[in-house]
Amino acid sequence: MAMYDNRCLSLSVFALTLLLLASTTTQEEEEESPITRFQQYLRIKTAHPNPDYESAVSLLTSQAQSIGLQAQTLEFAPGKPLVLVTWPGTNPSLPSILLNSHIDSVPAEPSNWLYPPFSATRTSEGKIYARGSQDDKCIGIQYLEAIRNLRFSHNFKPLRTIHISYVPDEEIGGVDGSAKFAASEEFKDLNVGFMLDEGQASTTDEFRVFYADRWPMRLIIKAVGLPGHGSRMYDNTAMENLMKSMEVISQFRGNQFDLVKAGLAASSEVISVNPVYLKAGSPSPTGFVMNVQPSEAEAGFDIRLPPTAEPDLLKKRIADEWAPATKNMTFQIREGGPMRDYMGRPLITAANDSNPWWCIFKQAIIAAGGKLAKPEMLASTSDARFMRQLGIPTLGFSPMIETPILIHEHNEFLKDSVFLKGIKVYESIISSLSSFDGGNTFGSATA
Ligand SMILES: [Zn+2]
Predict the structure, then answer these.
(1) In a designed cystine with 80, which of 153, 168, 253, 400 is the match (CB 3.0 to 4.6 A)?
(2) Pfam families, per this entry (predicted)?
């Protein structure tokens, strides 16, 4: 029995070795291409809570160096590296172009995926499945591939210096990533004149572009009241006051949503308020104690404000109506980064002819055979806000047309043809932006 087992074992080890040898050979034989380089990046497990930044840094560094670009690693918080790639321009005194993307990804639940989320499986239809394929490892590799082509196929030389930044922690707020980068001396030294950051997929044949982000606010409302027997009716219990507050908030939410439903505003142009948790009750071994009215109740909300909204007005509404002290209610607000730029202006990049960068960007898309949709505000939040806060005109753009929007969803994928077309679009954008020899002052670039 034992002998038979051993023979089986050695046979299967032999078979396995053969298999491994075979697969190594196939991998080696598979030619390096933009797609395989994209897949290599996608296979690095960069999902929170433990993103493998180290492997990503070494891959990006070697890809950048392989096309003769300088790459350095900066670290503004321990274990949170940032890769900065540079292609010097022939006139380095002109403000530079910064192309940004984030290294990290949100987690994925493998059981809900058709293919393992970090396998970067390419189907016969050309769909590449991976967490991060749309958000936003695609642009990270497209920037490099576009520069590779400009350098080696078109012998292009940029007038302005081009930088690419690969930042950590965007998906958890960017505090140790872009926020610290934007505030650093190293960033100041880059003398950035214009920045491109991530955007979102478009389901039509028009590319989407984003000129502002919404501003995130986290709200926690707490109600306290006298506990009592579950049979008693009395005023001002914690639960009653929290429920009344929820009704008022629901009314506000409904009014905002009605504007969207009526077509009067895009969903990114209103204040969204969504309850994300409720916490109350006295736990028991079988669930909750059912005959006691609890003395505390709490609810949490995800709120997003368009950049033109007045946060102080909303805060007053919260204090007066949503969590009134007269009803024994308190609240906490956590603000997600800057709301106004250094001059006190809303964080908006002008997406019109008053902004020369906008004109160049738009022309470059058309020159690449693309169509551009009406510029939008991003319903969520990206690192772009930290650069807009410095007054740097920043557009959010990821060249994905005819693609379902799958960021943070199960089975995130990007088609190989869409990825490859995106490289061509970036060749046009990067060459146009870096050739712009206009003056150094763009007072109207942020509106
Ligand atoms: Zn993203």
Answers:
(1) 168
(2) M20_dimer (PF07687), Peptidase_M20 (PF01546)
pLDDT < 50 regions, the chain: 1-28, 441-447
What are the chain's domains? 32-209+351-435 (3.40.630.10), 216-335 (3.30.70.360)
**379 and 268 Cβ atoms separated by less than 8 Å:** yes
pLDDT for the residue numbered 438: 83
Catalytic residues: 104, 170
Helix (H) or strand (E) run with residue 192 in it: strand 192-197
Burial class (CB in 10 A: 0-12, 13-18, 19+), 374: exposed
CA distance 55 to 167: 14
CA of 198 to the centre of ligand 1 (A): 6
CA of 413 to the centre of ligand 1 (A): 14
Residue 397 and residue 185 in contact, taking contact as beta carbons nearer than 8 Å: no
3-state secondary structure 365-400: HHHCCCEECCCEEECCCCCHHHHHHCCCCEEECCCC
Please count the helices (runs of H) and the strands (runs of E) in the chain: 11, 21
CB of 442 closer than 8 Å to CB of 195: no
